[in-house]
Structures are given as structure tokens and as C-alpha cells.
């Protein structure tokens, strides 16, 4: 398979997965921008990236670095929830409570409870252990519950 065909197959099968992780963590606008940056990086460095065991996890880290660089250059962008595919009438308080979660727990909560990803899929995408995902998810759900129960 040619270099270009390998990359196209990867982009077709894995780019959406990476984009969802980044949108869940950073909001629609920034998440999509970071996903585009990461896929562009993959194309430029495909000789190295294509041979990695977990290229999506590596590109997630590339996107995280790009996001940190952007935050240093400009004010933070507020989290804007992407409309989940199966939720028609979400409670606005939930979106506001999600904005108050740290980025990684927010991504874990959204990917597992909204998109139905397994702990393994989230762990692979964020390039961390499943135990770490369980911890972030547990803490994120507990904080969401506290925030929603104590809303005024």
C-alpha cells in the first residue's frame, strides 16, 4: 500500500474518533481546530506516525500541545457543547455543569455517557490507562451530580 493510501485509510477510519475526543474535551470550535492540526501533523510526519502502535493517542498529545500553545497566545475559549447525536432535549443546566468540569473528566463523561464509548476506547484515544479513565469518569460524574443538586 502506498504512503498516501495508508494515510487516507487512517484518516478515514480514525480522524473522526480523534475529533470527537477533542470536541468533547475542548468544545466544538477549538476541538475541530485541534483535530485538523493533528491530522495535518500526521500527514506531514506520516513516515513516523504511521508506524506507531497507537497513532491516535500520539496525535491526541500533539493536539494537546497545540491547544496549550493556542491558550498561551490568546484568551481561553469557553466550552461549547456539541449536540450529541441521540439527545434532543438536554437540560441547559447539564451543559453549564459540564463547562465547570476540567477538560479530561469532561471528555471522559461525554465520550462514555453520551457517545457510548468503552473505557478502553477512551483510554486508547487519550493515551492513558483504563484505570485513569475510571478515576476521571468517577470524579467527573460525582462533581456533575454535586453541581446539579446544588444549582440555585
List the helices and strands and how they pair.
Elements: H1 3-26, H2 28-44, H3 46-49, H4 55-73, H5 92-99, H6 103-114, H7 119-126, H8 130-149
Give a brief rundown of this model.
The protein contains eight helices and no strands.
Would you give an account of this structure?
There is one protein chain. The chain has 152 residues and is an all-alpha fold. It has a single domain, classed as Winged helix-like DNA-binding domain superfamily/Winged helix DNA-binding domain (Arc Repressor Mutant, subunit A, Orthogonal Bundle), CATH 1.10.10. It has eight helices and no strands. The protein is elongated and about 55 Å long. 30% of the residues are buried.
Amino acid at each position: 500500500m502506498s504512503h498516501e493510501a495508508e494515510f487516507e485509510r487512517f484518516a478515514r477510519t480514525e480522524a473522526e474518533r480523534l475529533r470527537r475526543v477533542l470536541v468533547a474535551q475542548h468544545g466544538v470550535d477549538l476541538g475541530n481546530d485541534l483535530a485538523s492540526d493533528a491530522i495535518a501533523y500526521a500527514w506531514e510526519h506520516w513516515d513516523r506516525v504511521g508506524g506507531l502502535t497507537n497513532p491516535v493517542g500520539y496525535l491526541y498529545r500533539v493536539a494537546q500541545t497545540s491547544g496549550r500553545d493556542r491558550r498561551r497566545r490568546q484568551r481561553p475559549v469557553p466550552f461549547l457543547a456539541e449536540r450529541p447525536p441521540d439527545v434532543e432535549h438536554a437540560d441547559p443546566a447539564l451543559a453549564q455543569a459540564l463547562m465547570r468540569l476540567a477538560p479530561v473528566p469532561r471528555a471522559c463523561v461525554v465520550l462514555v455517557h453520551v457517545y457510548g464509548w468503552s473505557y478502553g476506547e477512551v483510554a486508547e484515544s487519550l493515551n492513558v490507562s483504563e484505570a485513569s479513565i475510571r478515576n476521571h469518569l468517577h470524579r467527573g460524574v460525582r462533581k456533575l451530580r454535586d453541581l446539579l443538586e446544588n444549582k440555585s
